[in-house]
Amino acid sequence: MNKLDLHIDFSCPFSYIGSEKLLQFIEKENLPEDIVRFRSFLLNPTKDNVNKVFLENMTKKFGTSNIAETKERYRGIIEAAKRVGLNYDLDTIIDVNSKNAHKGLQFAIEEGKQNDYVRKVFSLHFEKGGDFNDLDTLVEVIKSIGLDGEKFLSNLDRLNELVDKDLQLAADRGVNSVPTFYANGRILLQGTGSFEEFKQITDSL
After folding, report:
1. Which of these CATH numbers, 3.40.30.10, 3.40.50.1010, 2.10.10.90, 3.50.50.60, describes 4-203?
2. What is the pLDDT of residues 112-131, one digit of tens each?
3. What letters, b where the CB count within 10 A reaches 16 and e where it falls short, cover 120-158?
4. What is the pTM of this model?
5. What region holds the DSBA-like thioredoxin domain (predicted)?
6. Where along the chain do its domains lie?
């Protein structure tokens, strides 16, 4: 069976929701875990990690008058997350560059644990206020899914190259937002999707 590629960024709430929806669909339909191949994408590749307070940064970005108004903008996302059993905790999110998290993704893919890793890192970021730019934190995530943290650290340069290859692949495919579902040589869906749409996609593979 051909794999479905899903381009995601760990800093993206829609990737958070769309990834979980797809994984729940795969489990419900008893599909092979490796039917999906997660692909790295960076919405903010130049994020400098200077100001890590998410709500302050988003208030500036949106031009809203205060944090309460900014929070209101996320009401729909929070409700969408709840519908698939997820929590989206605006008050604890740390706004940092996600590239190190994607290095961990590439490692987990090689080790056959990508789905576990994706869920753990999204939860770390959106539910627990964890710092996925911090390598020690990522090592703990990697160890929690039964993988070797030291092996991850010893391969960072090579994993960085794999992330860059995914970024170039996304550019070649015309991917400019996430989540984006790609198979059979074309973009099939952009957005969080539904079980009905996933059924159509997986039936076509």
Report:
1. 3.40.30.10
2. 999 999 999 999 999 999 99
3. bbbbbbbbeebbbbebebbbebbeeeebebeebbebeee
4. 0.97
5. 4-200
6. 4-203
